[in-house]
What we know:
By secondary structure, this protein is of the alpha/beta class. The chain is 46% helix and 15% strand.
Amino acid sequence: xxxxxxxxxxxxxxxxxxxxxxxxxxxxxxxxxxxxxxxxxxxxxxxxxxxxxxxxxxxxxxxxxxxxxxxxxxxxxxxxxxxxxxxxxxxxxxxxxxxxxxxxxxxxxxxxxxxxxxxxxxxxxxxxxxxxxxxxxxxxxxxxxxxxxxxxxxxxxxxxxxxxxxxxxxxxxxxxxxxxxxxxxxxxxxxxxxxxxxxxxxxxxxxxxxxxxxxxxxxxxxxxxxxxxxxxxxxxxxxxxxxxxxxxxxxxxxxxxxxxxxxxxxxxxxxxxxxxxxxxxxxxxxxxxxxxxxxxxxxxxxxxxxxxxxxxxxxxxxxxxxxxxxxxxxxxxxxxxxxxxxxxxxxxxxxxxxxxxxxxxxxxxxxxxxxxxxxxxxxxxxxxxxxxxxxxxxxxxxxxxxxxxxxxxxxxxxxxxxxxxxxxxxxxxxxxxxxxxxxxxxxxxxxxxxxxxxxxxxxxxxxxxxxxxxxxxxxxxxxxxxxxxxx
RNA sequence: GGUGAAGUGGCCGAGUGGCUAGGCAGAGGUCUGCAAAACCUCGUACAGCGGUUCGAAUCCGCUCUUCACCUCCA
Length: 487
């Protein structure tokens, strides 16, 4: 039968069979957003990718515990130790409180993710809600000699942890300093040491009491503390963007493993970037595509489909032309699904290769979540289905059912790129939709009569006028159908 | 300077020793009053130069180019 799930582990730089630490249960932590602005396409790529990871594992029968944090402590805008708290800065710009900024953009984030069909994590902890846990972790590191206080700041002593930099390959600290842009700090023992706790400067709003005075946690700390709290000291998978390998994830490893003496993460997964004209899309570069704006032009599911047509470890280049191409493909898939749902069972024997299609999809997803291959196999299947549906003998009722089930399982439940039956069949619900249905019925009846009388001028006029209003009429063997076209 | 990743047909985007990726766009055809959709057919693709091999887009070496990270970032 099909091979089992293998995942590319960034730490070992190889694909490895996935075996959860506790049989049947997978623990996953994914770095969440810092909530000081609306989500952009880059966030979408990351969370859609991990959504498929979670959905696939659940499909395989694993119980998945999925934690994704919300970073609502503003870390700094600038150098490692300079600059302003990002959330505080945004609050100043919007003339409000940091808390309001964090909550406003948290809601905005989930709104966008919901529209993309991204399932909510089981636990979505906030950094500000876990200050005691973070302080406790710092204390543990100070007690064990891996961290030291210096003027109200607490730093992790990089020299006390042998494997520092093993994830990113940046193990030579001397080399790192020579060409790096990290400014030297006088109160650090080593330039590579990173802050676990930072003293609050005057005017800093988000701050808490700690054994080292008023301050706030370092930006690598929350993930370690919350991951350990909810998933245990060793977790199966930690995911995030590639740009976070260093320093963020390397620091997480160092502070976690130094504290517990256990492996922190068994498999690291890193998704690649969205680029615009070949350059990374990022908040700081100001070239990002806001999801809410993008949704005005393209349906969220089209964006999801566009994202999943490339592999999570490959960069994805954004362009309107590319998304439009995806949109056409996406609509084709929905059309075939709709045809199946509306098909009248025929005599056609189900000779088409459904099981082969299924095996290949399973194989692709088991191979490090290869969604583009899975989608390509779905399209091969779509072609077979359309061909069969075109033939007079059609498909047997058993074939129709099995085909629908296959699409709903893989395109729907796992990849999340299938419109719902309701949306597809009725377009919209409610009274106005019913009225529209009735009006359309009348129009199509009139047009049918005109065509029967060979009055093509009238029939074409009806079709053209409807098309101008975004309603497309198609003549099929079974009669005319209509559908609303997206912009 | 250091650490990684990558260069595939008009565009997007998989693959990674021999066997069709797929989508979009384009050409021709079938069907249709015409459209649309669908289906069929059509592409001298793998940055360049060497090497290994019976055989390389796929492995090795060199060259060129691009990107990411080394500062917050999904």
